[in-house]
Amino acid sequence: TEIDWKAYMQEVEGFANGTLDYTRLKGDTGPLVYPAGFVYIFLGLYYATGRGADIRLAQYLFAGLYLLNLLLVFRIYCRTSKVPPYVFFFMCCASYRIHSIFVLRLFNDPVAMAILFLAINFFLEEHWSWGCLLFSLAVSVKMNILLFAPGLLFLLLQRFGLLGCIPKLCICALLQVFLGLPFLLVNPMGYLTRSFDLGRQFQFKWTVNWRFLPEEVFQNRAFHATLLLAHLAGLGLFALHRWHRPKESILALLKDPAVRKPASPPLTVNNILWQGGQQGEGEKIVFVLFSSNFLGVCCSRSLHYQFYVWYFHTLPYLLWCTPTTKLAHMPKVLLLGVIELCWNTYPSTVCSSLSLHICHGLVLLQLWYGTAPPPVMHTLPPSRRPGAISKKAQ
């Protein structure tokens, strides 16, 4: 279970020894492919664990990170009040794979997600600058956090307008420059191509979600382009029809909020998410960010086993944020169970990968139809109403 941990320690050991050329930082599993924030955080763990030798201490530290992560997630869920309390048992105790990712394998994915959930807590408290700083820090640990970026951009535009959100975006960009500066000064192209390599090829043997495809299709660039287009289309549809208020131009987001037209009555998402007030705004923030990330997961070129933590803690909200009858609770719990089973099937099979896509599709369908604006009730003109006609006939 310490394969990745040892590789991480080997990668940061080069930096500890003075190597600033990113292309020369390598481990047993290959070259370093994460941004600079990863290097600094795991360098701290490198020294805290006796140059990576005390793996037991590292596991204790990651167990503490797991508990902190749960605390941050629970605080987000308490602000939304959507998920029934019994579901938190499954989040805490029923996922062997999540416990393995945190405490047995010591991956960097949990570190990035914990920082991300801390950023969301700051967004919920209306501390947008601090939230953007932490969001950028999470990106610097692992790039999967960028799946939340479309939703965050939408929220920033809606909250501050185009000019108002530019300083927030500058915070994100400047932190990336600051963290990467030692490496950028030595080999800028080497740092950028290694740490932000969006075209990296994944090995077919590790894929969890595309096992049912032939390997030549899985590696085909046209397939990757199709997934990218599907991702962009999904984001566009959700931004236009589920994140945005109805009967209001999406271009209104570019204007200063102070000069926008008064908002129409909140009718989106079955009058659930956009209710107004502090709780309603919190629900909106969580819905936009979690759904943005989930769309990216559904269209991912490949999901590896540690990637489960990218969206595991968001699944209960995505399933219960829509109106739920008593009879619908059990199918949603069953859906969580099937997703868990798919991620615990090693190696993945045609059946497990197909089942995972079916589950993702069901979650997407209930998000789309469960948050649709209610139909507009058309009323007849007074002169055409049946009551008026019958009175005239008398």
Automatic annotation (TrEMBL):
It catalyses: an alpha-D-Man-(1->2)-alpha-D-Man-(1->2)-alpha-D-Man-(1->3)-[alpha-D-Man-(1->6)]-beta-D-Man-(1->4)-beta-D-GlcNAc-(1->4)-alpha-D-GlcNAc-diphospho-di-trans,poly-cis-dolichol + a di-trans,poly-cis-dolichyl beta-D-mannosyl phosphate = an alpha-D-Man-(1->2)-alpha-D-Man-(1->2)-alpha-D-Man-(1->3)-[alpha-D-Man-(1->3)-alpha-D-Man-(1->6)]-beta-D-Man-(1->4)-beta-D-GlcNAc-(1->4)-alpha-D-GlcNAc-diphospho-di-trans,poly-cis-dolichol + a di-trans,poly-cis-dolichyl phosphate + H(+). It is a multi-pass membrane protein. It is found in: Endoplasmic reticulum membrane. The chain crosses the membrane at residues 32-48, 60-77, 106-124, 130-157, 169-186. Its main location: endoplasmic reticulum. GO terms for molecular function: dol-P-Man:Man(5)GlcNAc(2)-PP-Dol alpha-1,3-mannosyltransferase activity. It holds the Pfam family ALG3. It comes from the Eukaryota. Keywords: Endoplasmic reticulum, Glycosyltransferase, Membrane, Transferase, Transmembrane, Transmembrane helix. GO terms for cellular component: endoplasmic reticulum membrane. Its EC number is 2.4.1.258. Dol-P-Man:Man(5)GlcNAc(2)-PP-Dol alpha-1,3-mannosyltransferase that operates in the biosynthetic pathway of dolichol-linked oligosaccharides, the glycan precursors employed in protein asparagine (N)-glycosylation. The assembly of dolichol-linked oligosaccharides begins on the cytosolic side of the endoplasmic reticulum membrane and finishes in its lumen. The sequential addition of sugars to dolichol pyrophosphate produces dolichol-linked oligosaccharides containing fourteen sugars, including two GlcNAcs, nine mannoses and three glucoses. PANTHER family: DOL-P-MAN:MAN(5)GLCNAC(2)-PP-DOL ALPHA-1,3-MANNOSYLTRANSFERASE, NOT56 - RELATED. This is Dol-P-Man:Man(5)GlcNAc(2)-PP-Dol alpha-1,3-mannosyltransferase. It comes from Eurystomus gularis. The gene is Alg3.
